[in-house]
Every structure is written in structure tokens, then in C-alpha cells.
């Protein structure tokens, strides 16, 4: 994504390889952008493409709810558990629709269960940096596009990723701050039974998935990769444990819902302050509604960045009470 070109940007070189750009006469929700000139992502792209690279990233106020990565061997019940969550809490959780080169199963819909795609197209999109992670799984290519995660996050829901262990490892290494959950079967025999009873794979594919399951079960237990391991023996019991775990994670990370959605202030210029606090001077918004004319932007805890959005911006209103005394309130 690129910001619309216009005259009158205010810019500020930050010490983390980015330039902060505030667009003049734009609403608060759409005026803060970062031009990355020397971040790890840009460095990697430079190497990959053998040319000079810069990357745009839109700044988002407040932190998004942490995505949930659910992993485990094929047939363990990840999809079943995720479907239950989405059915019970449709406005709270959203599914990250992956891309895959495997053929659709009966009843699977393009754009709902997966984005079914050609290998060459997917490989090009991977080269173009559109994927957060990708892996070759059971002979096909699977991957999570940045767009898939952002579409869910931008809708205000908590994003759920159903990905294999290699994918989970890549997400762990990325800038995405997520919670990682590994689902185990009660036994290998039970896993085999579930996979066969689902009857979606040929015998040859079942054998391949079972062979891969052994390695995934070992990897899943490797230290530092997953935050939680759940055994899906009785479905209802496992589902209740999953819900409890997510609820306690949500409480621990009190969701920071930005209240700026409808705030139509128009930033006219900015002024830098030490310790990563920047003052945004705003004009009237043309609606006749009174809004503060001075905001403070705190960029000390930025997260993410190109090729996705830059989150963790904190914005405060600054109200002058009398000479030299201001009241500061977080939005
Ligand atoms: N706790 C459970 N007890 C018995 N059967 C279960 C349980 N959980 C899921 N199943 C069944 O096991 C089969 C596999 O489940 P599911 O498709 O959800 O697995 P999955 O982990 O998403 O597999 P894949 O990785 O291949 O997509 C389904 O037929 C499902 O109904
Ligand atoms: N690394 C990724 N793995 C993914 C993704 N989407 C799904 N998967 C995993 O693939 C297997 C097989 O899925 P199936 O639908 O063919 O049964 C399963 O373990 C999924 O978790 C992805 O985007 N990235």
C-alpha cells in the first residue's frame, strides 16, 4: 500500500530506519505513514531483488488483538475446534484464509476455506513479498498472505491461523506478535482413525499425512515454539480448555480498541519532541464538531511494519489548561 501523493507532507527521520510521514489535511486514521528505508524487511528485499528498495507501511493507532496460531498434525481436529469458535463468537474471531495449490475438496469454497491457486502464481506472490509465511505441506504449497491476516485484523476481529508447524515457526520468527497453540491427538492410532473417517484423502495421501504427523508431533513439543499444548481427546473438553485459555490471554492483554475510528481531525503539521513524542497540530474538520487542535503521537512502542502495517501508535489529546499546564488524555 502507498499513501496518496500530495504536497504538504510533514516528515521526520526516525532512528529505526524509517521516515515518519504525516499527510496534511487527512483524518487522523489515515494520515500516519512510515517509509521504511533501512528496516530488516527492506534489507532482506534488497538482497532478494538486488536493487534499492523502500517500503510503505500504514500506521495504525492502538494495538491489534494478538492473532492465534493453531497448529497440529493433519486430522487432529484443528479445523473442527476453529469452526466451533467461529460459530460461537462470530464477531470476535475471524479466520485467516490461506492460499494453497492443493485441489479443493467437495464442499470447499474458494475464498472461504482457502484461496485455491496455481503454483506459479503463488510462487510469484511469495517472491513479491505478499506472504507472511508459506510451506510445502504433504506435497502442496500452503501460505498465509499478509492481506489475509490484515483483512481480519482490520475488521476488528481476532485473527485465527490454521497452519502447519513449519508455518508456525516462520510466524514465530516474524514481526507478528501471536499466541501459538499446538493440538495433539490422544494417540497416534486415534489420529489415524480420524483421518480415515474424514474420508477426504486417498490412501496414499493418508499414508503421507501420517508419516508427516510423526515429525510434526516431535517438532510441536520442541521448546520455545508453542505457548500451549492441548490434547484433543474429548472434543467438548478440549474446546472448553481452548476457550478458557483464549479468555485468560485476552484478559492479560487488555484489548486496546482504538477510539479514533470516527475522529475526523485534519493534521496540518507536526513538530518533533525528544523521547519519541510528536505533536500533531490539527485544523478544523469541516463538520462543525469541536475536536482538540493538538494531539501527541507516541511512537516509542511500534510493532510490525512493512510489508504489513505499523501498529502500536499511541495518540493523546493535549488540552491547554493555562500557561504551561496541559491535560493529556489517551485516545
Ligand atoms: N475430539 C475429537 N474426537 C473425535 N473426532 C474428532 C475430534 N476432533 C475432530 N474430530 C474429527 O476428526 C476429523 C479431522 O478433524 P479436522 O478436519 O478438524 O482436522 P484438522 O486438524 O483440521 O485436519 P487438517 O490439518 O488435515 O485440515 C474430522 O472428521 C472431525 O470431525
Ligand atoms: N504453513 C501453512 N500451513 C497451512 C496453511 N493452511 C493450512 N495449512 C496446513 O496444511 C495442512 C493440511 O491442510 P488440509 O486443508 O490440506 O488438510 C494442515 O496441517 C494445515 O494446518 C498455511 O497457510 N500455511
UniProtKB/TrEMBL annotation:
Key word tRNA processing present: no
Pfam families in the record: Guanylate_kin
UniProt cross-references to PROSITE patterns, sorted A to Z: GUANYLATE_KINASE_1, GUANYLATE_KINASE_2
Catalytic activities: GMP + ATP = GDP + ADP
Gene3D superfamilies according to UniProt: P-loop containing nucleotide triphosphate hydrolases
UniProt-listed InterPro entries: GK/Ca_channel_bsu (IPR008145), Guanylate_kin-like_dom (IPR008144), Guanylate_kinase (IPR017665), Guanylate_kinase_CS (IPR020590), P-loop_NTPase (IPR027417)
The protein's name in its UniProt record: Guanylate kinase 1
Organism: Musa acuminata subsp. malaccensis
Amino acid at each position: 500500500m502507498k499513501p496518496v501523493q500530495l504536497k504538504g507532507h510533514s516528515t521526520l527521520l526516525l532512528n529505526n530506519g524509517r521516515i515518519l510521514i504525516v499527510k496534511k489535511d487527512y483524518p487522523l486514521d489515515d494520515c500516519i505513514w512510515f517509509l521504511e528505508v533501512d528496516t530488516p524487511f527492506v534489507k532482506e528485499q534488497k538482497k532478494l531483488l538486488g536493487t534499492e528498495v523502500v517500503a510503505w507501511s500504514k500506521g495504525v493507532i492502538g494495538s491489534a488483538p494478538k492473532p492465534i496460531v493453531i497448529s497440529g498434525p493433519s486430522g487432529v481436529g484443528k479445523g473442527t475446534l476453529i469452526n466451533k469458535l467461529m460459530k460461537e463468537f462470530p464477531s470476535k474471531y475471524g479466520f485467516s484464509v490461506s492460499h494453497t495449490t492443493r485441489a479443493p475438496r467437495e464442499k470447499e469454497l474458494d475464498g472461504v476455506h482457502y484461496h485455491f491457486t496455481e503454483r506459479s502464481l503463488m510462487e510469484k506472490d511469495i517472491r513479491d513479498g505478499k506472504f507472511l509465511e508459506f510451506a510445502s505441506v504433504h506435497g502442496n504449497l500452503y501460505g498465509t498472505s499478509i492481506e489475509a491476516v490484515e483483512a481480519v485484523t482490520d475488521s476488528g476481529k481476532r485473527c485465527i491461523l490454521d497452519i502447519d508447524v513449519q508455518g508456525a515457526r516462520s510466524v514465530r520468527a516474524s514481526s507478528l506478535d501471536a499466541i501459538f497453540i499446538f493440538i495433539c491427538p490422544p494417540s497416534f492410532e486415534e489420529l489415524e482413525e480420524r483421518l480415515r473417517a474424514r474420508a477426504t484423502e486417498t490412501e496414499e495421501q493418508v499414508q503421507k499425512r501420517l508419516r508427516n504427523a510423526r515429525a510434526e508431533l516431535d517438532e510441536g513439543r520442541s521448546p520455545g515454539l508453542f505457548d500451549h499444548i492441548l490434547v484433543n481427546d474429548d472434543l467438548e473438553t478440549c474446546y472448553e480448555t481452548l476457550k478458557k485459555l483464549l479468555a485468560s490471554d485476552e484478559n492479560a492483554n487488555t484489548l486496546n480498541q482504538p477510539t479514533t475510528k470516527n475522529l475526523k481531525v485534519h493534521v496540518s503539521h507536526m513538530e518533533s519532541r525528544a523521547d519519541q513524542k510528536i505533536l500533531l497540530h490539527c485544523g478544523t474538520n469541516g463538520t462543525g464538531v469541536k475536536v482538540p487542535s493538538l494531539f501527541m503521537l507516541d511512537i516509542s512502542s511500534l510493532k510490525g511494519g512493512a510489508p504489513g502495517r505499523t501498529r502500536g501508535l499511541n495518540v493523546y489529546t493535549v488540552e491547554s489548561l493555562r500557561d504551561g499546564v496541559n491535560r493529556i488524555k489517551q485516545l
